[in-house]
């Protein structure tokens, strides 16, 4: 959103430089109780919103930006005000309002230069709540979907790289939640339920940082279930990809302690992964 950023910077700089000459008093006095907001131009209301934003009054700024959109929907200031409304609500931490404004911008102005930023703000409205959702991962999935939109629809935008990094972190977060539940089951002796969680990580989140531990936990769970072929195969995949890790050393110790070796055995789901990924046998 190069244009909007530049405009924000220019207005903020002008107001900051003019404060000693009464810019701040003019804005505050001009929007007093005796002056209905309808009596001001789109630009004047927009500048007031910028003034509020520059002074960390984000909610007030968002409301002024909304007034620009309401009173002057067909002006050149309306699309700028709408995307800035989304930004102000996001700064305020009101993610639902930020998301609504960003989505409205995308619906009305899908082909403008600020569309990538609106999509990015939409993604952030989900992403910035990930740590607050506990075991409910609905917002994480929505963040991934919205971030993917930024990456795929606007790959050349200045927001694509940041979206990729956040996508990877959100993806890792989902895998971490699966690991958390799997460890819970494992500690309580629910080995089959634990194995199912770790299997999800290996199959669906194999590019995350949790894969080595997931493979090791599969060795633990399958040995506890007496499924030695699955345990050996998990150990073989772990050894092939992460031989220098502590997880492999622990798995190797577990297997050899049972008189077993980490090697692909049987015709199970892990053996299929071993054949496909390590031996290149896709058929």
Automatic annotation (TrEMBL):
Start and end residues of each Outer membrane lipoprotein BamD-like domain: 41-234
Sections of the chain in a coiled coil: none
Keyword Manganese: no
Compartment annotation: Cell outer membrane
CC per GO annotation: cell outer membrane
Subunit record text: Part of the Bam complex.
Family to which the UniProt record says this protein belongs: Belongs to the BamD family.
UniProt-recorded name of the protein: Outer membrane protein assembly factor BamD
Organism: Rhodosalinus sediminis
């Amino acid at each position: 959103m190069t244009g909007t950023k530049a405009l924000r910077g220019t207005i903020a700089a002008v107001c900051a430089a003019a404060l000693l000459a009464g810019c701040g008093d003019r804005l505050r006095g001009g929007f007093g109780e005796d002056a209905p907001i309808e009596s001001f131009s789109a630009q004047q209301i927009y500048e007031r919103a910028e003034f509020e934003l520059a002074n960390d009054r984000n909610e007030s700024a968002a409301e002024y930006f909304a007034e620009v959109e309401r009173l002057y929907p067909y002006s050149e200031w309306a699309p700028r005000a709408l995307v800035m409304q989304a930004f102000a609500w996001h700064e305020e931490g009101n993610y639902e309002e930020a998301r609504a404004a960003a989505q409205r911008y995308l619906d009305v102005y899908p082909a403008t230069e600020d569309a990538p930023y609106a999509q990015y703000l939409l993604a952030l409205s989900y992403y910035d709540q990930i740590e607050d959702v506990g075991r409910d991962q609905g917002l994480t999935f929505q963040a991934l979907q919205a971030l993917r939109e930024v990456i795929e629809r606007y790959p050349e935008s200045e927001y694509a790289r940041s979206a990729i990094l956040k996508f990877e972190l959100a993806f890792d977060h989902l895998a971490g939640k699966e690991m958390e539940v799997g460890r819970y089951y494992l500690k309580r002796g629910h080995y089959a339920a634990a194995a199912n969680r770790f299997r999800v990580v290996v199959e669906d989140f194999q590019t995350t940082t949790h894969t080595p531990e997931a493979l090791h936990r599969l060795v633990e769970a399958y040995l506890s279930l007496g499924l030695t072929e699955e345990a050996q195969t998990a150990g073989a995949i772990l050894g092939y990809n992460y031989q220098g890790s502590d997880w492999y050393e622990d798995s190797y110790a577990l297997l050899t302690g049972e008189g077993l070796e980490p090697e692909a055995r049987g015709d199970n789901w892990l053996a299929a992964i071993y054949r496909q990924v390590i031996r290149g046998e896709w058929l």
